[in-house]
Here is the input.
Amino acid sequence: MTIRERMEQWEQEYLSPYAMLSVNSKGRQRPEEQCDIRPVFQRDRDRIIHCKSFRRLKDKTQVFLTPEGDHYRTRLTHTLEVSQNARTIAKALKLNEELVEAIALGHDLGHTPFGHAGERALNRVCPYGFEHSAQSVRTVDLLEKDGQGLNLTYEVRDGILNHQTVGKPHTLEGKIVRLSDKIAYIHHDMDDAVRAGVLTEEDVPADIRELLGSTPNERLNHFIHDIVMTSMDRNDILMSEPIDAAMKKLRAFMFERVYVNPEAKSEEKKAEVLMETLYQHFLKNIDDLPEDFLKLLSEGEPREKVVCDYVGAMSDRFAIATYEKIYIPKSWPV
Here is the structure.
């Protein structure tokens, strides 16, 4: 018996009857020989961690564009916090922690530079639209590894695609990530907003503080405990009604005070113009795209989608540098 087979046997003996077992995966788009050490979801997690799009997350905006402080979240630290929350919940419920981790680490791989501002810009100008969940799946299916993709399992791809509020994951592990994403960004975005002076703790509605706690960490702890206790021994991932209502109220508060706050979002219009300008430039100058993306065109991919693939994959820093290179005149050297 291989190490992998022993680990698969452990899953069958230990995990909840509601867990997604590695041996029950619907498999990959392209069949592969099994690893003798790692079950399929662990293998997917490793592929995601080692891919280029994962590394680029370190220089992509979470909420505050190109912040000067070292302690503001980026898209990468957001991803790691989602993963940690999701793993805590999965372990407590005896669900498949490796599947949860793979989905969490991959859920934002298709996010644009400049956060949702970049996403709005590309969605506005591209006739096919642009939505980061679908782009994350396109990234792992097509864009990574020089067009070969990562060839992930169905369950990981499903969880990535359905991680947003409107999504309906087919596994409990996917449902954990969907909730963990929300509680992570509510927690850390509030923490960053306080750090930025956009909010104070006293601004949080008193009834929310009384129910959930008076600090971001207390509220995060409360959310995670509630999900675990409400979902225990059930074939679903849920919050209790009072906590779910409080989370929705807290999320609405964050939208009002942070996510659409003119002070916090003062640079986003510039970011949207930059993204739209880069899109139009490469659409008109398609041969300026790197070779990997020109190859996609030769294989029949629509040019508008391929331009979105390139511009949407940029980090904040690379997008700004590319714009400057194309549009900002250089000084004449002495």
In short: The domain at 3-169 is CATH 1.10.3210.10 (Hypothetical protein af1432). Residues 79 and 105 are 6 Å apart (CA to CA). The mean pLDDT is 94. The chain is about 60% helix and 0% strand.
